[in-house]
Write a structure and sequence with these properties.
The chain is built from 3 helices and 8 strands, in the order ββαβββαβαββ. With 156 residues, the protein is an alpha+beta fold. It has one domain: Gcn5-related N-acetyltransferase (GNAT) (Aminopeptidase, 3-Layer(aba) Sandwich). Strands 1-2-3-4-5-6-8-7 form an 8-stranded mixed β-sheet. Strand 1 and strand 2 form a beta hairpin.
Length: 156
């Protein structure tokens, strides 16, 4: 799936995931999208991403419209957890977040990841609903007081 010529790690239709060294949060829309992933309308300094995470710019026609972040071997060896799917508010409404998530899931599984989970803060009601629409279901096995964990295909 990766195209070394243009750095594309995964793609679904017009949405491409491209490896990124930065979080690209200098863009006000992406910064707000990242904060919205914690709680809609959240303000202030965005939390630092976990050590060892992989960052991908979500791009459409060469323009960065979002950010997707993955942690490997989390919560267990062989797992991958998507910790952030953030789409600039100006680019929402075109299923770009869903396509980015599904492209990442497909790539991770094809690379040998045993299962892909997504962690959503409980303060992000829209994020919880987004996961259900994307075909993921809550997993009680990883639930905590601050977040809901999702997996595709039912509870594990």
């Amino acid at each position: 799936m990766s195209d070394a010529a243009d750095g594309v790690w995964a793609q679904l239709e017009e949405v491409e995931l491209v490896e990124s060294e930065t979080t690209e949060l200098e863009n006000a829309g992406l910064r707000q999208a990242y904060l919205d992933g914690i709680e809609r309308g959240s303000q202030g300094v965005p939390p630092v991403l976990p050590e060892g995470c992989e960052r991908y710019s979500v791009r459409v026609e060469g323009e960065t419209v979002g950010l997707l972040v993955v942690m490997h071997d989390c919560p267990s060896a062989g797992d991958a957890t998507v910790v952030t799917v953030a789409i600039d508010p100006a680019s929402r409404g075109h299923a770009r977040g869903t396509k980015a998530l599904l492209a990442a899931e497909r790539r991770l599984l094809s690379d040998g990841t045993e299962r892909v989970l997504v962690r959503v803060p409980r303060t992000n009601g829209r994020g919880l609903y987004f996961m259900l629409r994307a075909g993921f279901t809550p997993s009680a096995g990883f639930d905590g007081p601050d977040a809901t964990w999702f997996v595709r295909g039912g509870e594990v």
